[in-house]
Amino acid sequence: MILPLSRILPLLSSSLLILSAAPVFAAALGAGASNAPASNLPDSPGAVVAAGGISSYSDSTELSSAAEPIVSPWSSQDTTAAKAKVLLPRVKFVPVGYQAPKQHVHDKLTLALRESITPFTMFGWAASAGWSHLIDSAPNYGVNSEAFARRLGASAATGTSKEIFSDAVFASIFHQDPRYYQLGRGHKFINRAVYAGTRPVIGRTDAGRHIFNFAGVLGTGASAALAQTYYPDQNVHPSQVMQSWVSGIAGSALGDLISEFGGDFIRALHVEKHE
After folding, report:
1. Where are the domains of the chain?
2. Contact (CB, 8 A) for 239 and 224
3. Would the pTM count as exceeding 0.85?
4. Which of 32, 99, 144, 179 lies 20 to 30 angstroms, CA to CA, from 218?
5. With helix as H, strand as E and coil as C, how does the chain read?
């Protein structure tokens, strides 16, 4: 089966966007590994880089002695041990070994807004729109370039509303902490995989207790329902809401798996950031 040119060109554009973003992710996850003394390295290079980004929800983050902090453009936090600037793939990532401060309602709103425009999130928009265009699935806008642009816009709208509903609105209502806490290399691979894959349905309260992830599940459902207002008529149906709801939760699980193992993957490839 040969795909028509109208479907190939948008896919090429999406692929180029993803490929161009890959070095940013690699640098973000791998940076700092060579800047810290070997005895001070945390469990993964992602933990080093994320140190500066923890203050995206608070500039008063307490760092453990496991690693030296690094400045990030997502944060106004100053450091004395390192001068590198790193673009974090995710804002709500808490690496293993770091003490995250308690969040208030305005912190959660800020977190949701900033998480919705990270390279990691935009990567998800492009991947989702590209796959939907390739197999011509919902939202069924067509198969030409304009259809791909509309799919990309719909993916961005759904992703952004999901972050706001989950991390700001419902996380505040149910007093949940929407951040992802890395389990780290001190645990078995299977345990880390199960932990990451179940975070979309197993949440964390502001007090640190594990509960059903009301914020994540309801937020994903709300964004799926809201999508009915801009989806084409043929996709306006309760079954489509359920399908989008389930796929949204699956997407969150994939994102958490990348957060958990991304630093290890970059380390395995021996990717280092050179000044």
Report:
1. 5-268
2. no
3. no
4. 99
5. CCCCHHHHHHHHHHHHHHHHHHHHHHHHHHCCCCCCCHHHCCCCHHHHHHCCCHHHCCCCCECCCCCCCCECCCCCCCCCCCCCECCCCCCCEECCCCECCCCCHHHHHHHHHHHCCCHHHHHHHHHHHHHHHHHCCCCCCCCCHHHHHHHHHHHHHHHHHHHHHHHHHHHHHCCECCCEECCCCCCCHHHHHHHHHHCCCEEEECCCCEEECHHHHHHHHHHHHHHHHCCCHHHCCHHHHHHHHHHHHHHHHHHHHHHHHHHHHHHHCCCCCCC
